[in-house]
Amino acid sequence: MDKLFIDSDIILDLIQEREHYPDALKLFALIESNKVKGYVSPLIFANLFYILRKQESGKFALHVLTRLKALLHILTIDEKTIELALSSGFKDFEDAIQYYCALEENLDFLITRNKDDYRKSGIIICNAKEYLAIRTSHQDI
Question: Whole-prediction pTM value?
Answer without folding.
Answer: 0.91
